[in-house]
Amino acid sequence: MIDQRTVQRIIEAANIVDVVSDFVSLRKAGADYKGLCPFHSDRRPSFSVSPARNICKCFSCGEGGSPLHFIMKHEQLTYVEALRYLAKKYGITIEEREETAEEKAAANERESLFLVNEFAEGFFENQLNETEEGRQVALAYFKERGIRPDTIKKFGLGYSPESRTALTDEAVKKGYKLERLVQVGLSVQYDESKPAVDRFRGRVIFPVRNLGGKYVAFGGRIMGKSDKIAKYLNSPESSIYSKSRELYGLYQAKYAISKADKCYLVEGYTDVLSMHQAGLENVVSSSGTALTIEQIRLLKRFSENITVLYDGDAAGIKAALRGIDLLLEEGLNIKVVLLPEGEDPDSFAQSHSSEELQQFLDEAETDFIHFKINLFQEEMRSDPLKRAELIRDILRSIALIPDSIKRSVLVQSSATELRMNEQLLIQEVQKFRKAGVRAGGYVKVQTNTQVSPQANVPIKQEDFTQKVEGKDEEQLSSAESLEPVRTNALQSYEIDLANFIVSNVGKNFYLELFEENLDEEEDEIKYEEIDSVVLYIYEFLEDSKILNELSETFKLLLEEAISYNLDSERKFEDFLLTHQEEALRRLSTDVISAKYLLDRKSESRLPYQEIFDENDPRAKERREAYEQKLERQAAIERGQKVNKLLDNLQLYFLKKSIFALQQEIRLAQKEGDKARLVILLRRLSEMNSFKVELAQALGGRTIQH
Ligand SMILES: [Zn+2]
């Protein structure tokens, strides 16, 4: 663990111009520097570096932050790794915090396992390139598979010789403990009475590296054909390797993935190698197993755009589709490419030029949902029951997507393709969501999806429109289709409030008192001073039960803001710049950049000297009074701003509740439950008048219908 004081020293030493210059060529532009953004393909220099603020920011893609953040993002390092990088750059000795005995033991064990693997990696590489057996058997095999020498080197491919104990013997001779070799699975001891043997003997080796580049596992493939042994053999799980947390090729691909903002997902090791050879480096493999949630979250750090490449055989594809639901649920944008029959990514990449490959991928890429619809087109046509099942399956997949706008766009296009009524599909997706549908888990939902027996006959809207009475119903269904837009509004209210919090931690504000509280004789507006704007926001959100509806990032920000030590010399926004949570670092960068732009605009403000005559004996007094007045004015504005932000949020949730209430009313009408109807209608009228009140407070701008 790095000692907190050292962290502080590193952060203070790191100079943004210095750090960025190592990767981007910068030129001076006024007080700042400019260059081509390394995070998107930038044609004009959009990347601005401010030495004064010690931050960088791309005005095109929005990426940027403190030196630490820049290094984390650019070099794809973790927080601690980036700190070490900067410490090295600035010659700062890292003071480690004293670790407990257990921490030390665990760290030592992990460290020694990494060392054993590193040794083995070198051994395998050496066997491949420097021995007669390796060259004749394994190198010839790679050559035959079309794998080039530079690729072999880049991925550290190797060979484990036929001899039963070659690696084990060599490692023990070099002083590595047999116990460690067994722990990482390089050696296997089947029986205590017998000597340990090499796990991978007679196989070519694909080393698996973690994000930081350390060797965590190996995959070994037999070269000839054999029915007896598995084609691939992998390292077992150990304290440094968890299969579900690693992606093959990510270490080599991470930078390319970030840069292209896209990742290709393939199945096998050789698919990754061949794609690299064809010039496409943003590719990883889940090593033939189903994707896990940890792998997906790992990928998501680099890009949200994932394109899955499938071999052209239909049976395999249908089985593999399940894994995609997980990707959808994590909010990733999923595209699919189906390779021509008989091809896999490996063979296809090898038989086409890099331009052809890229062009094919660009053209063949389809949205996952439409891919699914097309894939089952044939079955749906021939079997109406199957059709119903598949439609439910597709809607269920759509329901997993967290972003409501994406959902509604997909529903719309699916409706066209499936020739179904869009409203009905919206309702079905809504039902899945209400039932809390999850990828993998199956949730039973009552649906009334009806399916035309002859799918080729266009379905008439009337077939599906539920018979409803009164024009209220019409409003309800149109409100439902407005849902996505409103969710988007929530996000922007949340961001506005978050920005406000970042800039106003530790500040007070003046709250305007309502007229009732005033003496009628007075016509001056009265204010009450509230000490902490952050606590006020917290209490408001908590009391109005809004807090739980907001995002985790927002809640975390609020927590940090409340617990922030106001005596700290660092500003809250600077504290956030080095926060572990990326979303918070970004937020603070945005706030600082926005302020910076504002500051520069207001530079033309009159300096004090020009307002107050320095020679006037009362100048100091006047100046203080003037500053107080400015401060009070700012506190009043703060009060107006915070209430506006909170009102916006409250109005949003009120509208949502009204919508839910209207549905309840509809149900009560249908069931003829008069007593309940009376109660519900009264509640609706209360809510509506509150809505009008809020909207008026907000200047009437927010009333839309
Ligand atoms: Zn950019």
Can you put this structure into words, describing what you see?
The protein is globular and about 95 Å long. A hairpin with a 2-residue loop joins strand 1 (27-29) and strand 2. It is built from 28 helices and 18 strands. The chain is of the alpha+beta class. The two termini are 56 Å apart. Helix 5 (101-130) packs across helix 6. Helices cover 54% and strands 10% of the residues. Bound molecules: zinc ion. Residues 37, 39-40, 42, 46, 58, 60-61, 63 line the site of zinc ion (ZN).
What labels would you give this structure?
five-stranded antiparallel β-sheet, binds zinc ion, globular, disordered C terminus, five-stranded mixed β-sheet, 705 residues, alpha+beta, 28 helices
Write a brief structural summary.
Helix content is 54%, strand content 10%.
The molecules bound to the chains, other than polymers, are: zinc ion
Task: Describe the main β-sheet briefly.
Answer: 5 strands, antiparallel
Separation of the first and last Cα atoms: 56 Å
Number of strands: 18
Largest sheet, order of strands side by side? 1-2-3-4-5
* Mean of all residue-level pLDDT scores: 79
Categorize the overall geometry: globular
Helix segment tally: 28
**Helical amount:** 40-55%
Low-confidence stretches: 441-487, 601-606, 700-705
- The proportion of strand residues reads 5-15%
How many whole angstroms does the radius of gyration measure? 31 Å
Structural class: alpha+beta
